[in-house]
Amino acid sequence: MAQIRFYDLEINQPGLIWSPNTCKTRFALNNIPYETKWVNFRNLHTIIPSITKSGKRPTVPIIEDLAHDNKPVQDSWDIAVYLEEAYPDTPSLFHGNIGLHKFFYDYANSKILPFLFKLVVSRIADNCGPPQLVKWFRANREKHFGQTLERFSGELSDNITALKNALTPVHNVLKQHLFITGDKVGFADVTLASYFAMVHAIEPDKFELVLNIYNDDIFRNWWNRTEQYRTGNNDARL
Ligand SMILES: N[C@@H](CCC(=O)N[C@@H](CS)C(=O)NCC(=O)O)C(=O)O
């Protein structure tokens, strides 16, 4: 029986596991029985506040902990910390080094994710739901970025170069260790695997460029190694 109710973000391929922030929670839930509730870019604005009742900007992931009075928790980092405390019998993803994982989480968010996001944002926009939602999403994001999504995305080669720079320290670690965390998977691995999962699902050809960014197998081998932690249908692509 599910202990956690987990809210994920659906686009026009039902069941596709693609959202970079929700994947962190999905992968962190690997050892805890959970059920998935799907929301979309439109209805999350009503569904999420009705659960969190916090007044915070509605985003996913959120969870409701069915084993603890349906307690709602929002935000992928806060959820990871919560699960670690509420489910001490499941394997830890922090290994007593929570500060280091927070550092990597922030690094990946600010230095890696933006370039991966630029590889996929146009295709997400075109496939985020029915035509009305597609129109709204594009207008909403273009207003936010102050430019068209295509302009915002820039040149593929520039993004790959910037990404390669940002991934250098990770590549250096993975040359010597099985995981970013060392010999055991940790939340740092969950974080980067989640961002990779977005490109894998949305733009498979570009994902090949990412895996080959150093013309070696380091990232590909690590990605394959993380498979056992990426539950669900990870081979589904848009
Ligand atoms: N810091 C938050 C970010 C959550 C977030 O931005 N989620 C996106 C989906 S990947 C979202 O819900 N977007 C809704 C929207 O932009 O309207 C976390 O890590 O949970």
From TrEMBL:
SUPFAM superfamilies to which the protein is assigned, alphabetical: GST C-terminal domain-like (SSF47616), Thioredoxin-like (SSF52833)
InterPro entries: Glutathione-S-Trfase_C_sf, Glutathione_S-Trfase_N, GST_UstS-like_C, Thioredoxin-like_sf
Domain Glutathione S-transferase UstS-like C-terminal: 100-229
Pfam families linked to this entry: GST_C_7 (PF22041), GST_N_2 (PF13409)
Entries under Gene3D superfamilies matching the protein: 1.20.1050.10, Glutaredoxin
GST N-terminal domain boundaries: 18-85
Protein name, per record: GST N-terminal domain-containing protein
